[in-house]
Amino acid sequence: MRLIFKNLNILRSTINAINMSFEIKEIVESAGNNLPNLFDLSAFGVLWEEGSIIYLYQEESCPHSFTQEVVKNMVKVFSILGKGTDDVSRFSIQVEKRRLRPNHMMVDPKATLKSYLTLPLAVEGEIIGCISINSDQPNAFDAQDLQFFSVIGYQMAATLKHFQRFSSIKSIAIYDTLTNLYNRRYFEDRIRGEAQKAFYSGSSLSLVMVDIDYFKKVNDTFGHTEGDRILYEIASLLKTSVRKKDTVARYGGEEFILILPEAGLEEATMIAERIRRLVESTPFEIGQVRMNLTVSLGISNFPSHRARSKEELVKMADLALYDAKRGGRNRVCIYNAPKE
Amino acid sequence: MAKENRGGKWTSDLVLDLYSNLLMEVWEVVSALIGEAILELLFNLTIQKIGEKYPFLNSLKVSEEGISSDGVREVCRTIPPIDIHRGFQGLINHLFHLFSTLAEGVISREVFPKVFPKVREAERIISQK
Lengths: 340, 129
Description:
heterodimer; A: alpha+beta; Beta-Lactamase; Alpha-Beta Plaits; 2 domains; five-stranded mixed β-sheet; 46% helix; elongated; B: mainly alpha; two-stranded antiparallel ribbon
């Protein structure tokens, strides 16, 4: 009886830990940390279909062949549940090795998978993955283990579903649906953080405002559907022209903005020029016509331009863009402070 | 098609009663082990698969509350008892296959003692026909 109470307590804290998690990896880790107190396992696995990923949390002495067997078995079970083929290569595998056993109980280097329990992660009649506990010992799990494990499975499925929903809501909230770039709201959030960081530490921060030249003509001549397609294509070019740490957002209409953390004026100019040249040299097919488009770009930088707020930094990039337009378009202009 | 037996009940009804009870028992035992939602899913997967060959099984209604064979009864009136028996047998076999796939012998060990005598009983009824 005492053992059941102890197990129920562990079960409760496992469920709590899963509930408190915000990311799939965190969910797996929370469960992984607690499950060895409940089951005599060598490996715990989570297959998550949406991410095409298998997370394994396993005893560090498990040999590679054992890991492979566990993965293979999980994919096989998942395919038997009607979810695709048993081709392991469609999943990426992340293994977290932990010390789950005392020295004298280390897993034999030649150990094979001797017993397992696998359960589908199911929510509202939909299978979103599966979880599995595995052992190198025969008959390691019994009916009570299955009961406990199914409770964990239900909780995990529900948490993962919440996480999925949250991700899709988050994605709607931060992305521009037309271009797949970040939207203005996300930009405002991001620039707040980056500006704070730069102003506080004195590190460099550049902004590049980009505007498609004569875009109104494209819309008026070829219609908004073609115009939207151009926006999407130019957005894709912008994404490929920046560094990993940069943020590209749609600022509004045919205007885009780039946040370039730790980029001085020289580097920002280089990136902006690269974008200008790339757009200029890319032929766009609009309706039956093949034509070239250009963009104008304005750059502002902290600390060079002595902006005192993020709003000021954005305004400076906008003024530089205005200079580029006024100077004949298809050019990059750096903010030029008015003479006092 | 289904013969009336001495007790006044159709053979198909007897077979159906037997399997209905059996499925309810399976439900009771296995839902306590893996929960209703997962079991509902496994039942539905099985019905979908075996129902391709034995379409009368598609009238089985599964929900988190359990399994109901009310819908099957009417359909079964025109089906030979041996086919009803084979259909349900296929269903049970596939369920057991899924149970073993998920939990090796853990589920089967709990359910098999209840299932086996009933399948034998169904076979006896069919052979007496």
